[in-house]
Design goal:
Elements: H1 3-24, H2 27-41, E1 54-55, H3 58-69, H4 75-86, E2 89-94, E3 97-102, H5 105-115, H6 126-131, H7 145-181, H8 190-206, H9 215-236, H10 247-271, H11 275-279, H12 288-302, H13 304-319, H14 321-332, H15 339-356, E4 362-366, E5 371-375, E6 378-382, E7 387-391, H16 392-395
Parallel strand pairs: 1-2, 3-7
Antiparallel strand pairs: 2-3, 4-7, 5-6
Helix pairs in contact: 1-2, 7-8, 8-9, 8-13, 9-10, 10-12, 13-15
The protein binds protoporphyrin IX containing FE.
Length: 421
């Protein structure tokens, strides 16, 4: 099977080289043109031009497809399985698409830096994205690059302007709303408290609404967001979900969040307190479906990611009381020299907690073009349409550059200005 095409290539290239030899009358060209031809038209036999990704074996490929199709695994589970067995650069076929998994911070960094413009799209199936109202809509999975750029500018402007205001709101939330409402002696779930906090901040700070003070309204928001995340997992990659019995339930979750976002839009228009809602008028053609999806995505992005990160940080502090004591001493010690020492320590604490428990464990992209990148010990090639997964959770646990990677050590970022990725 393999010999036959190889033989044809050999004969044709010999002829090609022969003709060149006689035209240019230079002996060395004869061999050079043969090799050029061979390498150009059959890259699979060229040891220098092929991608150095390891292809996972047939059985593993089947296991990955089966587990993702039946949602026993999410993409982060798949990455963990592959990187443990095949190392920092591996590839598989997922539902007919070539996917490369990168678990190395240097390769991810080089790839994202050098090819960011050709890696603007994310992979996912179009039918699923449509049901999620994400197909060419909103921000997070919007593969219409012009529309994404336009919507991204709106989000960036909101977040740049909103940070200080959110800081003030959160101070007052902890002192006047949260502290008096906690009933000492009764069980309190830290995760629930933190979820209430981030939902309130998003509603008040970003949408200009205070209706979220009603617990039932807030609980409805949390449940609707949680259900939409389940629908997202269901629809994003799995093909032909129509044949599955959960289809209707997940469609309802998608409708529920859309109608919640419509309610938010209507209420925010009457209170007129939100710069984000005001700026959404800049969405192209003032398309209401785009506007509603942007509200949905601000809710998704701003609530669970932050509350979960704070939750895991508090768990890590419980397991490592010496770090908490060090911070508490610094905060309560009146002779603490500068407040930026405290801020630095808090930042280090969150870096370390996000490293150990990544709430955003993977970044997914799709090549808009053929791309190749060479490094000292790798050669990565993507063809147009290939998917690439940056396994952030996996690379955060690599010994390079994180020595004793499993250890919780916020002081590892005290590097005197040197940035650790
Ligand atoms: C610890 C908290 C957070 C984590 C771990 C986190 C993580 C992530 C990750 C991994 C992505 C995907 C990046 C990519 O594919 O390039 C993302 C995107 C995004 N995040 Fe966050 N995030 C957090 C908090 C927030 C907050 C508080 C907001 C807004 C209030 C936010 C807004 C966004 C937006 C708008 C995007 C989409 C960006 C785009 O597609 O251009 N995130 N986040």
């Amino acid at each position: 099977m393999v010999l036959f095409p190889a033989l044809i290539i050999l004969v044709v290239s010999l002829l090609f080289g022969y003709v060149k030899y006689f035209r240019k009358s230079r002996g060395s060209k004869y061999f050079a043109s043969f090799l050029q031809f061979l390498f150009h038209y059959s890259p699979q036999v060229n040891p220098f031009k092929t991608s150095s990704t390891k292809r996972i074996n047939f059985v593993d490929n089947f296991i990955c497809n089966y587990n993702v199709r039946h949602r026993f695994w999410m993409i982060p589970d798949l990455c963990q399985h592959i990187s443990k067995k095949y190392g920092k650069l591996a590839e598989l076929d997922l539902f007919g698409q070539r996917i490369v998994v990168v678990t190395d911070h240097k390769i991810s960094n080089a790839f994202m830096t050098k090819h960011t413009k050709r890696l603007r799209q994310r992979f996912g199936n179009e039918g699923g994205l449509k049901k999620l109202n994400m197909l060419h809509t909103g921000l997070i999975w919007n593969n219409d690059v012009a529309a994404w750029k336009n919507n991204r500018a709106i989000f960036e402007s909101t977040l740049a302007n909103g940070a200080r205001m959110l800081g003030e709101l959160s101070d007052s939330y902890f002192t006047s709303t949260l502290s008096p409402s906690i009933k000492v002696g009764q069980p309190n779930s830290i995760l629930t408290l933190l979820r209430n906090y981030t939902v309130t901040m998003t509603m008040e700070g970003l949408f200009g609404l205070d209706s979220c003070k009603s617990p039932s309204w807030r609980d409805n928001v949390k449940a609707t967001v949680g259900n939409y995340f389940k629908a997202w997992e269901f629809f994003l990659l799995t093909p032909n979900t129509e044949q599955l019995e959960e289809e209707e339930r997940h469609k309802k979750f998608c409708h529920a969040i859309t109608s919640l976002s419509r309610q938010i839009l209507a209420s925010a228009k009457t209170t007129n307190q939100s710069k984000f809602i005001e700026d959404l008028a800049l969405v192209k053609a003032n398309d209401e479906n785009q506007i509603v999806q942007c509200i949905t995505e601000m809710l998704l992005a701003g609530t669970d990611t932050s509350s979960l990160t704070m939750f895991y940080t508090s768990l890590l502090l419980t397991d490592n009381p010496q770090v908490g004591n060090q911070l508490s001493k610094l905060i309560n010690d009146s002779s603490t020299p500068e407040s930026n020492t405290i801020e630095q320590m808090i930042s280090n604490l969150y870096y370390e907690s996000m490293r150990l428990v990544s709430v955003g464990p993977v970044i997914l992209r799709q090549a808009e073009d053929n791309i190749s990148l060479e490094g000292p010990d790798f050669n990565l090639k993507l063809n147009k349409g290939d998917g690439i997964v940056f396994n952030i959770a996996g690379q955060n646990l690599n010994e390079d550059p994180f020595t004793c990677a499993k250890k919780f050590d916020p002081n590892r970022y005290d590097t005197g200005g040197r940035v650790i990725p």
